[in-house]
Design a protein that fits this description.
Length: about 130
């Protein structure tokens, strides 16, 4: 968590990697305009280009955190709470399109046989070796 937001530390890391030209190709497709990146920006009410500039001009994560507290949190408490509850469960939706996307992502990762991967967060954790 950063400034009370789940996923925000990951997004900041992705932006920093992008700014250095080091964001892995696997993340390029969803970067800022799809997936969890887009969902955070929408919930926070922040335009992608604005947030990239915030990160670019903030050498430390603490400075990004301060900016979010000042410019987002006071106005978006309800959105933050809903986002923090929903995001970790993403993939357990009964929606067929969501289930198909999760299955596709597991297949891409070579983890289709892993029944323990039931959400997109699980996919990220498995891909990065945490589970």
């Amino acid at each position: 968590m950063m400034a009370g937001w789940i996923y925000l530390p990951r997004l900041v890391d992705k932006i920093r990697l992008h700014l250095r030209g080091q964001l892995h190709a696997d993340y390029q497709e969803n970067f800022l305009h799809k997936g969890f990146d887009s969902r955070w920006l929408s919930a926070a009410g922040v335009a992608p280009d604005v947030f990239v500039e915030v990160v670019r001009n903030s050498p430390t994560d603490g400075q990004v955190c301060d900016w979010v507290r000042l410019n987002v949190n006071s106005q978006r408490a309800g959105e933050r709470a809903a986002f923090n509850l929903a995001l970790p469960l993403s993939g357990r939706d009964p929606d067929a399109a969501v289930q198909a996307r999760l299955r596709f992502r597991k297949e891409q990762l070579g983890m289709l046989q892993r029944d323990d991967i039931q959400t997109f967060f699980d996919c990220i954790d498995a891909d990065e070796g945490r589970i």
